[in-house]
Amino acid sequence: MTETAARFLARDRLEDLVHALARPGGVEVREVIAPTVEDGAIVHAPIESAAELPRGVRDVQAPGVYRLEETEDELVFAYAVGPHAWKRRLFPPQRTRLTFAGDDGRGAFDAADDASPSRNGDQVVFLGVRACELAAITVQDIVFACGPYTDVSYASARGKAFIAAVQCTHPASTCFCTSMGTGPAVTSGHDLALTEIEDGFVVVAGSNEGVELLESLGLPLADEDRRSSAQAAVRGAADHIERNNVGVDGSLARRLDRFPEHDRWDEVATRCLACTNCTMVCPTCFCSRDIHTSVLGQGEAGAERQWDSCFTVQFGEVAGGNFRRRLRDRYRHWITHKFSTWWQQFDASGCVGCGRCIAWCPVGIDVREEIRAVTEGEHGEDPREGDPFQAREGAQVRAETVGAGDTPGDGVPEPPPVMATVTSARWETADTVTLTIATPPGLDVRPGQFVMATLPGIGAPPISVSRISGAHFEITVRSVGQATAALCALAPGDRLGISGGYGRGWPVDEAEGCDVIVVGGGIGLAPLRPVLDWVLEHRDLHSGVYVYTGARTPDDMIFAAEMADLELRKDVTALRTVDRAGPDWLGPVGVVTQLLDPDAWAGESAVAFVCGPERMMSATLDALLDAGIASDRIWLTTERHMECGVGLCGHCQLGPFFVCKDGPVFDAAQLGPYLGIEGI
What we know:
Elements: E1 7-10, H1 14-22, E2 31-38, E3 41-47, E4 57-62, E5 65-70, H2 87-90, E6 94-101, E7 108-111, E8 124-129, H3 131-145, E9 149-150, H4 152-159, E10 161-166, H5 177-180, E11 192-197, E12 200-205, H6 208-217, H7 224-244, H8 250-253, H9 263-271, H10 277-281, E13 288-295, E14 300-307, E15 317-318, E16 321-322, H11 327-346, H12 356-359, H13 367-374, E17 412-413, E18 418-429, E19 432-438, E20 450-454, E21 462-469, E22 472-478, H14 482-488, E23 495-502, E24 516-521, H15 525-537, E25 545-551, H16 560-568, E26 573-578, E27 607-611, H17 614-626, E28 634-637, E29 653-654, E30 657-658, H18 659-662, E31 665-667, H19 668-675
Parallel strand pairs: 2-8, 8-10, 9-17, 10-11, 24-25, 24-27, 25-26, 27-28
Antiparallel strand pairs: 1-12, 2-3, 4-5, 6-7, 6-14, 11-12, 13-14, 15-16, 18-19, 18-23, 19-22, 20-21, 20-23, 21-22, 28-31, 29-30
C-alpha cells in the first residue's frame, strides 16, 4: 500500500503513541522494544513508558569511538545507531534448535519452537528502527526466509513484529548508508515512520495496521511547515553522510573479490585483533554454530544454535586441517563477503552502511578506508542497473503479509534428523570406518551428496555417502574429532540421526557415451565410490573407464579389496599409488597425477570426477586441462565446515559459493579459480 497523509504527533502525546503501540484496540497484546540508555550506550530493551526513551542524549561515533553526550533539548531520537541490531530479536544470539528425548538412541529428534522476539510470546513492536536497519532486516529476510530452506524460527519472529521506524536526522561520522543505497530516508518495510522535529513528530503509515493505529490516536494532519521541516532534516542527514564519505562507492566495493592477494590484507591483519566485535554488532551477519548438550541419565539432549564469527580460528576447521588459518584470510573473507560475494549469493549487499563495525572496532579499523585501499585505481560504472540495494523478487518479507508461524518464500523448514539403525560396521583403516545404515523413510540421496549424521548430545558432522543401495546406504567416516570418533565407535544395532541428502551431486548422466576418468586421493575416494558403482552398473553406456587412486601408505587405502578387484577387470583401467611404500607394496610410489595417461583417453570427449585434498585436486585439475579436457567437464567435490547443511549457518563459504547448497560438487570452471588461492 502507499503511505497515507502525514499526521502530526505533538511531543506531549508521545506517551499516547507508546500506549497505543502496546495496546492496539485498548487491549495489551504487544511488548514495545525501543532504544533506551544502559551502561553508557543506547540499546534496545522493553519499555513501559516514553520516559524511558533516550531524551536529551546524542551519540558521538568515530573509528574505535562511541560515547554519549547530554544535550539541552527534548529530542528522543537524536542519535545514529547503538551496539544492538534488531537481529537480536529476530535471530537471537542463542536459541534451542533441536531437542531429543529417549533412551539408548531409541528416541526421536524434534525441531524446537521457541521463536519469539518478545518476552511474553505475543506480537512485539520495534520502535526506533532506522532506514539502514530496515535494509538489514530485509537482508536477513533473504538469507533466512527466501532460500531453498527456511529458518522457521526467524520467519515466525519476523511475522510478529510491528515496525515503527524513525527517520535518521542525526547521523554519526561512521555512517555511510548513502553509499550503500540504504538510507537515511525510510521508504519501505515499515508500519509507521516518524520524523522528529522540534515540537514533535511527523508520522506516516506504511501498512493497513499502521493506518488503523494512527486513526485510533486521532492525530491532526501535519501542516506544510512541519512537513517541510521533516523533509529538510532527512535531506540534511543525507548531505552530512555524503560529505563524510567522499570516494566511497558501492560499485567499487563489489569489486573487492578481484584482489585476493592485495598487500592491504597483510597490513590490516597486523592491526586486527580478531576480537569478533565487528561481526557481533553487524545487523546482517548470520553465521552460527550448534552446541550439542545432553542431560546425563535422563535420555534428553539438544542442540543450541549460537552466533558465530568468521574471525575465529575454529570457524574454518575441517577434518583435513583449517582452510582459513591466517588472520589476513579471515579479514579478507569477511570484507569481501560482506561487500562483494554477498551480491552473488543473495542479490543484495551484505552491508547496509550503519557504521557499527567502525565504531566498535577496538583498534579503529575503518572498512571505508580498506575498500578505498584495495580498490584504488578501479573505476567504471556498476554493472547492475537500478537501485544498488535491489533485492531479488519476493525477497522483501513484510510484517503485514507474514503471520505467526508462516514460512515465506518457496523454501521448506530445516528438517530435524530422522533416527536410523546401523546394520554393520567395517574398519577400512586404523582410523576409518564404513557404516552400513538402514535407509530411514523419506531419505533421498544421490551420488555425491552428503548427510548430516547426528548423535544426540555429541554433534552432527557432514558425511559424504559412499554407497547407495536401496534399503541401505553407507557412510565412510575418519575419526578426527569427538563427533567422528563417536560415529566410528557405533556398532550394529546402534542408532543415529540422519538428515539429507544435501547438496549438488555428481552429474553421472553427463558421462554417458564418454570416457570416464575417476581420480581419488585418500578418503576422497569415499564420495567417488557411488560414481564407480553407477559407471560399472551401466558399463555399456560408457567408453573407457579409468580409475586412479592414491593414499599416504598402503595401510591408509580405503576400499582396498574393492580396488584390487577393480584392477582385475578387463573393461576398466585401475591404478593405485602411495606416497610411502611398505615392505609388501609392489605398486607405484608417488603422487596420483603420475598415474594419468592422456594417451589412453579422448580428452575432448572425456568426463572426469575428482576428489581429494585441495592441493591434490589443484594438481589433478592442471593435468586434466593440459590433457585437453574442458573445464566444464571436470567435476570436483570439496570439503568445508558445515553446521546446518542447508545454507543457513554461513560456515561453508568458498568464494561466492556455499558448499553445502551450491556444491559440494562443482565443475572446474566454477571452482578452478579458487583452488590456487590460499585461505579462500
